[in-house]
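Known limitations

Files may contain more than one protein. Parsers should not assume a single record per file. Below, a two-record file is shown to illustrate correct handling: read the sequence, read the token line, then continue until end of file.
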Amino acid sequence: MAKIRKELPKGNILYPDSKEALEKNIDKILGALGLAMRAGGLAVGTEAVTQAVDKGKARIVFLAENISDGTKDKLLSKLVYKEIKYILLPCSMEMLSKRLGKSGNISAAALIRPGFEKIIFKCMDTPTVNCTNIGKE
């Protein structure tokens, strides 16, 4: 049986100065993710995110806070191995699905096109983050 990861790996996680900044700006962040999706720059769902990670297209991965332990462990193992940054969103799978206009529960999404991470960081009020080193060109 696979070992379930209880703690998130700290080296790959991206947060602004505090989780409160994410909570304060979650509506802006989800709106920016919706914009990225409409522009074809977002992989949505665990399977699509896994494929994007495997193909080296995922730039930043977003996880819903109530993602299952098994799915979290599967994704985090890949993210750590591929050295891809992720953000644990302070929202449920239901809220993420609704804001992206998808039915069912979406537990993960990944930015797959350059440029959208700058919009996300602007929404999080973190202009000091160097976006040029995120993801693989």
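...continuing to the second record:
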Amino acid sequence: MKVTFLGTTVLLFDDGVDQILFDAHLTRPSLPRFLFGNLQTDEALVERVLGRCPMDRLKGIFISHSHYDHALDMPYLAKRTGAAVFGSSSALNVARGGNVPEAQLHDYAGGIAVTAVDNDTARMSGTGEAKGKAVANEGNSVSSLNANRVTPNQPIATYKVGRFTIDILPSVHSKPNAFNNDLGQTIDEPLVQPAKKKFFKEGGSFDFVVHHENEPACIIRPSFGFIPGEMDGHQAKVLFLGVAGLAKVDDNEKKRFYEETLDKVKPEVVVPVHWDCFFRSIEKAATGYPFFIENSKAVEAEIGKACRERGMAHKYLQPFASIEF
């Protein structure tokens, strides 16, 4: 299994047969464009990224939430590769704004079984009657489950894509700030690019437990926020841990964060994500955020200390770098 980091929270999983992508933010508009301009996919840049990191076997794109730094390039990649798109209703409206065919779109809350038509596209094959049950399909398939959740550690949906099985866990975003105060707001109509940053509403946040028939589980937590008890019973070899915002909370909040993530998941390796400045081009070496946004050196020191105290390895990845296990 190889996982390639493509900046921010973008992770490409590749088992040698199929690929799945978590989040889709390669364009990385500059800070002035973020503040004052319109945002849209830089198709030429995305093609250069695909030249360095081919996604010719991409079967699914999973979106953690619908802010632009997680979903901006998803419509282009979905149309370019034919991959199915999995996300909230808001994320799917980002896809619809980019004219992604409806047959490729799968709502986490839908409780609908889907089966792949061929290697590149998927079609609806069930109804809400699939709610509460796992649907197993033969061959190249994707299946979905909308469980009747009783506790926060239960997935609201489970999808099978090739030999991957992905559990979807509702989570929470990091705390709002002056640039990011739309938590809980939704995108209710197709979002056509170019568009202002403010129209990419959060739309709900989600974490992922990634299983593979031949490998230990991985957990992806793109945002710093957490729901107490969400990780109960979920352990993984590798934890991809969103750290943006860690430097802005007090020691008590950090302690609770570690208790709900590191101490429950018990990973062998922690890979920080959302550590790099996403206003800097993916074609340049990644750096931390400007100090007025985040004290990235303090975050790195905090994560290193927390991992060492628990006997866990931790590894920062540059864009296009991979971890294999």
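Parsers that stop after the first record will miss the second one. For reference, the second record is described as follows. The helical segments are 31-36, 43-52, 68-71, 74-81, 89-97, 251-260, 262-265, 296-309.
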